[in-house]
Amino acid sequence: MSANPFDLFAAWYAEANAAETADPNAMTLATVDSAGRPSARIVLLKNQDPLGFVFYTNLDSRKARELQEKSSAALLFHWKSLCRQVRIEGDVDLVDALESDVYFARRDRESQIGAWASDQSRPLDSRDTFEQRLKTMRARFEGIAVPRPPYWGGYRLKPRAFEFWRDRANRLHERQVFARTKDVWSEGLLYP
Fold first, then answer.
1. Active site residue 122
2. Long-range contacts, stretch 97-100, CB < 8 angstroms, 24+ apart
3. Domain range 5-106+149-190, its CATH number among 1.10.1020.10, 2.40.280.10, 1.10.10.10, 2.30.110.10
4. What's the rounded Cα separation, in Å, for the pair 118 and 132?
5. What is the C-alpha separation between 30 and 39, in angstroms, rounded?
6. Which of 119, 123, 71, 113 is nearest to 93 (CA)?
7. pLDDT digits (tens, 9 = 90+) for 66-124
8. Residues 177, 189: contact at Cβ < 8 Å?
9. The pTM is what?
């Protein structure tokens, strides 16, 4: 047992970084719309600290619109090679502009240009249209640093619950849970 879910996550994440061949930072983000209809997609964890778990997106995307309507969400990490998964539930806030700027500046240039060219989650008539927009944005920013678009930024999920799941033989899995009340974490186990 561990008294701090952030420490346990950090240990498991370090093992995943060593063991997983592709995207150990991939996580499912589940949101709901204003009618309570769920939606899930894979996003990439870009920062984890005692404040929470940070990912970035177009702020006009479906996930961002859903987070503006309902600021609670869930994350799921599944590390198949380790036979482990971590579920995290919590409230989500926008990260500040400076934090988004710092991360955006570290992105690959083509990813930066893609952020300007994409109307993420909106209908697209053809791939050629998108390719043309990419070409236009490459020309627009040729020879200069690509600034962060005003409609692009980060979110931080602040956990209120964790579940650490370990595979065991005969489906007799181990499930360790943490729940936060104010600033205190309680810890327990669940039946498989």
1. no
2. 97/153, 99/54, 99/154, 100/56, 100/148, 100/152, 100/153, 100/154
3. 2.30.110.10
4. 11
5. 6
6. 71
7. 999 999 999 999 999 999 999 999 999 999 999 999 999 999 999 999 999 999 989 99
8. yes
9. 0.93
- Which tokens hold the place of 126? 């053809």
Q: Where are the domains of the chain?
A: 5-106+149-190
Cβ atoms 29, 155 nearer than 8 A: no
What's the full length of the chain, in residues? 192
Alpha-carbon distance of 174 to 168, in angstroms, equals 7
Residue keyed to tokens 């929470």: 52
Cα 184 to Cα 49, 79, 116, 181, 187, distances in angstroms:
17, 28, 42, 5, 10
Alpha helices in the chain, H assignment, sequence order: 5-19, 62-69, 97-106, 109-117, 127-140
β-bridge partners, 159: 90
Residue pair 132/113 in contact by the 8 Å Cβ criterion: no
Residue 141 structure tokens: 């920013």
User: Which of these is catalytic: 62, 65, 171, 180?
Assistant: 171
